[in-house]
Amino acid sequence: MSENERMQKAIEATITTGYQLSTDAFNYLLQCSKKTDPLTIMSMVLHEMNKLKEKPFIIEKNFLENMVKQLMQTHKAAQAVQNEKNQENTIPQPPKSQTASGEDIFYPHAKYIPSELEILEDATGKLTSNGTLEEYTALFQDRYKRLEKILRKRIDAKTATPIREALKSQPKTKLKIIGILTEKRDAKQQTILSIEDLNSSATVLIPNNAPDEVKKKALQILLDQVICIAVIKTRTNLFLAEDIIFPDVERKIPQRAQEEVYAVLTSDIHVGSTKFNKEAFKKFILWFKGKYGTPEMKEIAGRVKYLLIAGDIIDGIGVYPGQQRELTIRDACRQYDQAIKYLEKIPKYVEIVLAPGNHDTTRKALPQPAIPPEYLTSIKDKNNIHSVGSPCLLNVHGVDILMDHGRSLDDIIATIPEMSYEHPEKSMSLLLRGRHLAPVYGEKIMLAPENRDYLVIDKIPDILHAGHVHVLGYCNYKGVLVVNSGCWQEQTEYMEKLGLVPTPGKVPVINLMTRKITILDFKTEN
Question: How many C-beta atoms surround the C-beta of residue 423 within 10 A?
Fold first, then answer.
């Protein structure tokens, strides 16, 4: 990256975090850039400014100059201490150019940035299911109550009438009702919805002459979703639909990191499979250490602080028909041991979060607790590797990331028109709209009857990260960055039968300060 490009990125970083440089401050930074990386200067300055109680809107030269002097003094003092302790641990200065041999110098900026990782929500250790009918009832009652509460916060649904009261209303009365969808069927070019709340049930007709937008919404409703319907009462107990309102996420201003750090999102490694692309994954590991990739890729690698893996660490045993023919390791413990051998080669300053998927050795019913410790004995002494459940809500450098393996995408793609494996981000957006990660009960996905529905999306994340379908896809949905992170497994016989074409080796990397996504391809030569 040239000096001008670094200067431009430094200014972009400043503006992104809500500050501006005065003319004198800009000239001072330009002058400093001849000796020191301006992007490093501004990253350090912005990190310190975030600690101030009163933050200036415009950064003046004097302020910037004083901050740089203080930081340089602190840096020199820290360097002196390190020199006394161990010469090998001396903090290196960021490189300004290339070595005489022409090779790019790798500088691990993230090594000197403190980790900010917090697990906000994880059902591991809280699951109590015994599979009783009462627990299933409690699960759906909890789902209904929490999603009804979310719906009633909307202006267009806050005055919804309980179904029991709506049934008593006069013909031609317009009102709104909230219910959980128990059945959806087509009859004579019309759609009939059956919904119920905690006390009553109702039948809603979407007639053939309904607006196209309402018909489209009806097609996209999933069974067991909680929705609000604007209706007209008929002379019978039938209601005619005028509109369908989802809980949805309100458009939000996303949270951002206050310094330039990156998070790598990936999933579906499938260690133990003959289709696991070992060579691409080895390049991936080398990239973290600055030993693989273009200069631009190495610059990104130096700022990676987090690696978030959304399930299917291993290929498992007996997961799908004929799997044994496509295994190189036929023991789950050995598969995990091999996976950890790869991950432990990643620099220790990178925080690694492991969540389970349907191929991992935890229960298959959702929500999934963390992978049992007896399968991950080799990470006990590794403080930078964390095992969590699925779903799990993390806060990473001030950014909320909801991580879920994504198994419910199979149900959506199988039942909703226009949804496909080629664009998993569209199906993920529907989950956000319904504020639930796996609403459908009794189809392909097993739901455990917990007293609390851990799959309801109470808090709107800044990033929704999933995998499972092995296809890279991403979009922005009302301020939420939606990412399906692809895989490391080539097409299996089972995938071929499903018509699923994977995208192995492609990895989304997110700048947590700017929210920019960069896709790195480790299957191609760089």
Answer: 18
